């Protein structure tokens, strides 16, 4: 083999035309971040740029770390910055490297056109094994041979850069090796990355001023590992900004940042099984007729009857309907359909009616206050539910029709004011006490409404399911999700009311109605909103409050009943009963921290959620099973006594009721024991498992005694 004879200087114009598809014009950005990893990376780039020997540089790291950009930083920061930088994908080279080393007829090889510039061999780990020796020699000495029959030897006058996603010991030994840390180990830099990416992308999209990035959003995203690293982060930012297009908020909402969730197994798509079911359930006519033609006016009639009809439960069918039917049925519905009640809740139906009427008169509700609204809303929600529980017991709402109506109208007033103040269903998502309870127990449901994140990110650009928009394809015109969430962003059922607005708007059939294992939302890596644990304690306090006389009647200052006597004494006694679970929790937290120091103590509260649901169900079963069957005669007794006497009625035997209560509590105890193992990762016969399992059994036994009276 002979060295090549002196050749004529390649035609610059022909070389530029040949190099055009491979040129890297400039570095896209510098190294973002102030962590020690970012500083170390900047130091390595500066050192490689200042290396006068122009030694080959190997840049390795996971996919999505923009290693080609780092090579550009080195090249354009060196003394050869005025020379060209060319990138060649090694995965696309043939075994002989003809695309790089071969010269077309009457021309010169691509590598010869580079001259004294830089050659970036991208994805060296994916090069054909037969080509690797030639690339290794090029990196070591700059020598290369043409793939023609003469195998003429040449010398590359420029500098070689290489990138790889896996370990390359052969190249590592001869190159200046720069290892790029993944984004998950540089969580400290995430805030700076977010603000930089948002600023750059917002300006490119034509925003006059980039939106702010809240600390709550940064902290939430810091819990995500970003397997796609910087590339995934930048795509996440672009997707978020496009969802906000037209609104241009001062601060980016967390809802528009949705990341890939944990792998979800054991899901059954009902609409793929029965496609015609999807068409029926998506029908706006069905929903509008139900909401505005039935629910809204039935709610008016119910309240009129509560105000002007009989005032006790034995003679008022509406009281019977609410206390003997609604409570047991909604509790039974949680494990099946989650928060479905909220989709046709009369409170929010009238909130939406008023919102539409006001909009027709020119009123425009404000956009949602972005940021971590749960931080201030969750305590208000829990306090609101506590106030309702106190009112229920102190005012004997179960036997007071007007007070029950006043409670319904008060919640409706909150929905109306919330709808006038903010767009969509801000009240329903953040402030409604009943909605908060529904969202909490919806985590136990076997059904979920979700979208395929890959379809949404790859096919959708309108995000109409989230923010609304005109009809597109088979997607219908909607105002977007009433709770302001994207179905691919949902981490659990808390903020999904199964209203199917997203399914109506989606033109890509990405939204799925699926069956899943019970309590699938309760996972060790879940990130519940701030303050939600407080609602669990309030609901548990409601069980104690309902049976306060049985539980605390032995106290010297205990009143004879919660419905009669001095108000302050009754209020103090009721507040004590309501606060019992919170006091017990303060005692249990150190125990949980000692038994499972690696687990957040609040996980125990979520492990007890199935038991709490079971106790609430057992508490409401007696009224439902004993009085629910008397709805028809109770409803007609005042107006048509003769007809009421002939109408059918039934009432369950006390032993049957007690059996159903025991069965419900037994299911709750079993569910909580399973949740303990899942959330706290307890070994079956370990000390912590036996101690916490014994606690669950004790709470279940005590709860059964409390709600069933023995």
How would you describe this structure to a colleague?
- The chain is mainly alpha-helical and 710 residues long.
- The protein has 31 helices and 10 strands.
- The protein has a 5-stranded parallel sheet, covered by helices on one side. A 3-stranded antiparallel sheet has the order 8-10-9. It has a two-stranded antiparallel sheet with strand order 4-5.
- Helix 16 crosses helix 25.
- The protein is elongated, with a radius of gyration of 33 Å.
- The termini are far apart.
- Mean pLDDT is 88; it is low at 1-6.
Mean pLDDT: 88
Outline type: elongated
Distance between the termini: 99 Å
Class of secondary structure makeup: mainly alpha
Give the low-confidence spans: 1-6
Largest sheet: 5 strands, parallel
**Spatial arrangement of strands, main beta sheet:** 2-3-6-1-7
- Helix segment tally: 31
Kindly estimate the percentage of residues that lie in beta strands according to DSSP: 5-15%
Helical content, roughly?
A: 40-55%
């Amino acid at each position: 083999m002979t060295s090549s004879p002196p050749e004529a200087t390649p035609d610059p114009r022909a070389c530029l035309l040949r190099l055009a598809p491979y040129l890297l014009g400039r570095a896209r950005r510098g190294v973002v971040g102030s962590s020690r990893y970012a500083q170390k990376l900047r130091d390595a780039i500066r050192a490689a740029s200042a290396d006068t020997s122009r030694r080959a540089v190997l840049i390795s790291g996971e996919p999505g770390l923009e290693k080609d950009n780092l090579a550009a930083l080195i090249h354009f920061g060196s003394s050869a910055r005025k020379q060209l930088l060319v990138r060649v994908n090694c995965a696309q080279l043939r075994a002989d490297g003809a695309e790089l080393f071969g010269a077309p007829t009457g021309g010169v090889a691509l590598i010869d056109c580079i001259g004294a510039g830089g050659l970036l061999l991208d994805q060296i780990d994916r090069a054909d094994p037969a080509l690797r020796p030639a690339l290794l020699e090029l990196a070591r000495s700059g020598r290369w041979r043409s793939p023609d029959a003469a195998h003429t030897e040449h010398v590359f006058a420029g500098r070689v850069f290489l990138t790889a996603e896996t370990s390359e010991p052969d190249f590592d030994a001869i190159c200046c090796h720069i290892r790029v840390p993944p984004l998950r180990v540089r969580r400290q830099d995430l805030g700076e990355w977010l603000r930089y990416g948002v600023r750059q992308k917002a300006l490119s999209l034509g925003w006059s001023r980039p939106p702010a990035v809240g600390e709550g959003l940064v902290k939430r995203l810091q819990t995500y590992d970003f397997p796609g690293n910087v590339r995934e982060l930048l795509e996440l930012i672009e997707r978020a900004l496009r969802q906000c297009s037209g609104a241009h908020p001062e601060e980016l909402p967390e809802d528009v940042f949705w990341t890939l969730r944990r792998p979800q197994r054991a899901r059954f798509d009902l609409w793929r099984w029965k496609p015609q079911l999807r068409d029926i359930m998506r029908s706006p006519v069905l929903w509008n007729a139900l909401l505005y033609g039935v629910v809204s006016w039935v709610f008016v009639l119910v309240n009129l009857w509560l105000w002007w009809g009989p005032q006790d439960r034995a003679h008022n069918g509406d009281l019977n309907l609410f206390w003997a039917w609604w409570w047991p049925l909604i509790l039974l519905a949680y494990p099946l359909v989650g928060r479905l009640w909220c989709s046709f809740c009369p409170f929010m139906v009238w909130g939406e009616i008023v919102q539409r009427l006001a909009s027709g008169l020119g009123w425009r509700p404000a956009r949602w206050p972005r940021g971590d609204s749960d931080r201030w809303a969750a305590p208000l929600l829990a306090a609101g539910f506590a106030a309702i529980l106190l009112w229920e017991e102190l005012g004997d709402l179960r036997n007071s029709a007007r007070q029950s109506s006043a409670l319904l109208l008060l919640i409706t007033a909150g929905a109306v004011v919330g709808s006038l103040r903010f767009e969509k269903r801000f009240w329903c998502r953040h402030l409604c006490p009943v909605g908060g309870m529904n969202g909490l127990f919806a985590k136990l449901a076997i059904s979920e409404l979700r979208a395929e994140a890959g379809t949404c990110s790859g096919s959708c650009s309108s995000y109409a399911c989230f923010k609304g928009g005109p009809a597109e394809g088979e997607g219908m015109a909607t105002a977007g999700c009433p709770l302001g969430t994207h179905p691919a962003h949902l981490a659990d059922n808390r903020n999904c009311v199964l209203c199917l607005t997203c399914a109506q708007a989606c033109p890509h059939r990405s939204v799925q109605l699926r069956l899943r294992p019970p309590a699938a939302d309760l996972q060790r890596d879940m990130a519940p909103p701030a303050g939600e644990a407080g609602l669990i304690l309030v609901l548990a306090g409601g069980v104690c409050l309902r049976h306060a006389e049985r539980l605390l009647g032995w106290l010297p200052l205990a009143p004879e009943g919660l419905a009669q006597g001095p108000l302050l004494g009754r209020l103090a006694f009721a507040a004590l009963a309501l606060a019992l679970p919170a006091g017990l929790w303060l005692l249990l937290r150190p125990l949980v921290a000692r038994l499972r120091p690696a687990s957040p103590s609040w996980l125990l509260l979520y492990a007890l959620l199935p038991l709490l649901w079971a106790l609430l169900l057992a508490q409401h079963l007696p009224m439902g099973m004993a009085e629910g069957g008397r709805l028809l005669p109770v409803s007609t007794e005042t107006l048509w006594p003769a007809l009421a006497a002939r109408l059918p009625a039934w009432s369950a035997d006390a032993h049957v009721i007690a059996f159903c209560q025991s069965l419900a509590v037994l299911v709750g105890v079993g569910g909580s024991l399973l949740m303990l193992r899942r959330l706290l990762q307890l070994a079956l016969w370990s000390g912590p498992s036996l101690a916490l399992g014994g606690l669950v059994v004790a709470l279940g036994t005590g709860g059964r005694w409390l709600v069933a009276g023995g």
